C-alpha cells in the first residue's frame, strides 16, 4: 500500500521553517520550502527535476498566475484524492464484471462438461432420446436468440479486451462529454449533463471514443472562413499562433497546423486550425478554458491584423 499524506502548513510558522507543503511518499519525506505564502516553479523543479517539476507545477497552478497558493494546493490535492477514489471504484467495477463473466462462462461450460462426462461413462446411449429432444430445443432457441448471443460475445470483447474506458473516466463521443458511472457486459451507465443514462454497449462500440484519462493531450480543430483578401494574411496569423503556443507551452503543445483549405461559393475560403491542448487529470473545465483562451487569442489577433475571421458552420 502507498500512503500519501500532505499537510498544508502556515507559512508564518517559524518552527516549520515556512514550509508550504510537506509530503510523505513511500515512507520518505519531501519538503518544499517557500519564502512566502506561495510556491514558485523553481521550487518544483528543485525537488522533482526540470521536466516533472514543470508538469507538476502546471497541475497545481490552477489560476495560471505562475505561483501556487495554499488554496490552490489544497484544491488540487483534494482532486487527486477524488481521482484515487475513482480508481478504487474502477477496480471494484472490474471485479464485478469478472464475476459476471465467470457466471456466464459457467452457464456455457458446465453443460458441455456434463455431456462430455456422459460420453466418457457410456451413459449417453441410454438417454439418447432425451438429449436429442433437449438438443432440438436448444437449437431452436439459439436461432431465436442468435442476435443476442452475437451481441453478448461482441460486448465481452469490447468490455474485457478492448476496454476503451473504466468507471470514473471522462470520455468524448460524437463531441459530447460522458462520465462513466458503471460498465456492464451489455449496458453501461454514463453521467451526461448531470443525468444518469444507461446506453447499450453496441450503440457506442462502433464509434470513435476519446478517453481523457488515457490522453495526455487533446487535439482540437477550429473551423474558420474568411475573404480571399484576408486570407493573404494567413502567414502572419500562423506566425502569431506559433509565438502564442511557445509562450504557453505548458498548456499547449507547440505543434499546430492550418490545413483543409476549401473555396466556398461566396468567394470565401474555409480552413481548419488544429492545436494540441494538455489535458490534466480529465479536467473538462480546464480543457474548455484553454479552448476559450485560444479562441479569444484568435479574435484579438485577427482584429490586430485587420482580418475578419468567422467560425465556419
From TrEMBL:
It is a multi-pass membrane protein. Keywords: Membrane, Transmembrane, Transmembrane helix. It is found in: Membrane. Its main location: membrane. GO terms for molecular function: calcium ion binding; mechanosensitive monoatomic ion channel activity. Gene3D superfamilies: 2.30.30.60. The chain crosses the membrane at residues 101-124, 130-153. The keyword Cytoplasm does not apply. Pfam families: MS_channel_2nd (PF00924). This is Small Conductance Mechanosensitive Ion Channel (MscS) Family. It comes from Pseudoloma neurophilia.
Amino acid at each position: 500500500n502507498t500512503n500519501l499524506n500532505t499537510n498544508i502548513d502556515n507559512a508564518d510558522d517559524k518552527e516549520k521553517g515556512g514550509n508550504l507543503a510537506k509530503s510523505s511518499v513511500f515512507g520518505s519525506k519531501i519538503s518544499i520550502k517557500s519564502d512566502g505564502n506561495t510556491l514558485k516553479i523553481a521550487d518544483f523543479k528543485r525537488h522533482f527535476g526540470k521536466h516533472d517539476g514543470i508538469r507538476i507545477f502546471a497541475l497545481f497552478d490552477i489560476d495560471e498566475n505562475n505561483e501556487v497558493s495554499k488554496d490552490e494546493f489544497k484544491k488540487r490535492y483534494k482532486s487527486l484524492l477524488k481521482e484515487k477514489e475513482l480508481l478504487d471504484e474502477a477496480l471494484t467495477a472490474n471485479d464485478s464484471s469478472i464475476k459476471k463473466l465467470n457466471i456466464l462462462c459457467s452457464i456455457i461450460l458446465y453443460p458441455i462438461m456434463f455431456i462430455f462426462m456422459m460420453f466418457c461413462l457410456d451413459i449417453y446411449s441410454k438417454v439418447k432420446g432425451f438429449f436429442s429432444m433437449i438438443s432440438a430445443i436448444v437449437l431452436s432457441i439459439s436461432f431465436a436468440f442468435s442476435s443476442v448471443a452475437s451481441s453478448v460475445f461482441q460486448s465481452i470483447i469490447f468490455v474485457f479486451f478492448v476496454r476503451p474506458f473504466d468507471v470514473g473516466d471522462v470520455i468524448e463521443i460524437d463531441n459530447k462529454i460522458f462520465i462513466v458511472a458503471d460498465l456492464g457486459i451489455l449496458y453501461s451507465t454514463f453521467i451526461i449533463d448531470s443525468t444518469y443514462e444507461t446506453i447499450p454497449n453496441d450503440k457506442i462500440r462502433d464509434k470513435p471514443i476519446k478517453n481523457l484519462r488515457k490522453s495526455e493531450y487533446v487535439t482540437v480543430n477550429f473551423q474558420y472562413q474568411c475573404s480571399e483578401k484576408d486570407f493573404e494574411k494567413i502567414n502572419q496569423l500562423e506566425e502569431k499562433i506559433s509565438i502564442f503556443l511557445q509562450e504557453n507551452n505548458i498548456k499547449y503543445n507547440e505543434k499546430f497546423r492550418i490545413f483543409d483549405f476549401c473555396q466556398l461559393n461566396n468567394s470565401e475560403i474555409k480552413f481548419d486550425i488544429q492545436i494540441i491542448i494538455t489535458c490534466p487529470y480529465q479536467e473538462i473545465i480546464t480543457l474548455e478554458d484553454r479552448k476559450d483562451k485560444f479562441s479569444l487569442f484568435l479574435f484579438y489577433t485577427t482584429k490586430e491584423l485587420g482580418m475578419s475571421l468567422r467560425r465556419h458552420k
